[in-house]
Write a structure and sequence with these properties.
The chain is of the alpha/beta class. The protein is built from three helices and six strands. A six-stranded mixed barrel has the order 1-5-2-4-3-6. The N terminus is likely disordered.
Length: about 160
């Protein structure tokens, strides 16, 4: 009988230790302290992965897919072999056409990057995973923008 009570006590201690480690808002001293405070809109910056003083970035018009590597291309021979059409059969358009990993983002998927909504219409030989290629009108524009990282949002219609 004593052994089963000891096992139950150990299980309870382990459960509550894991519970408070997983949910800092329930940890000793967390409630009512300045460590975890609700903001004016009710957001509580607590829990696994929460960074002190940093809110999760959200965009009201889409779901964040994370940070992607962004590159650029144009219709020149160097960038796309001089093809006049995208993989989907459309004429590529600046501020609209995007090349993405079609296994993750099928043709027609709308992704928002730097405030512009692009449509996945193309695929590229080096476009894989969290790397997308934006279509530009000229080779100079594509080179000028260069390679950079940006947060990408999935736009749901």
């Amino acid at each position: 009988m004593r052994r089963s009570k000891t096992k139950a006590a150990v299980a309870a201690v382990l459960f509550f230790s894991c519970f408070t480690a997983s949910f800092p808002a329930f940890a000793k001293g967390a409630v009512g302290t300045s460590e975890i405070a609700a903001e004016a809109d009710g957001y509580v910056n607590a829990g696994p992965g929460a960074a002190p003083g940093k809110e999760a970035e959200t965009d009201p018009s889409g779901i964040s897919l994370g940070t992607f590597t962004i590159t650029g291309y144009c219709g020149c021979t160097k960038c796309s072999g001089g093809h006049n059409l995208t993989y989907s059969g459309t004429v590529p358009t600046p501020n609209h056409t995007l090349s993405a990993d079609l296994e993750l983002y099928p043709i027609g998927t709308k992704l928002k990057i730097d405030g512009i909504v692009y449509t996945v219409e193309d695929k590229g030989s080096s476009v894989d995973g969290n790397l997308v290629d934006i279509y530009y009108a000229t080779h100079e524009e594509a080179l000028e923008k260069g390679t950079y990282k940006a947060e990408v949002f999935l736009v749901e219609e």
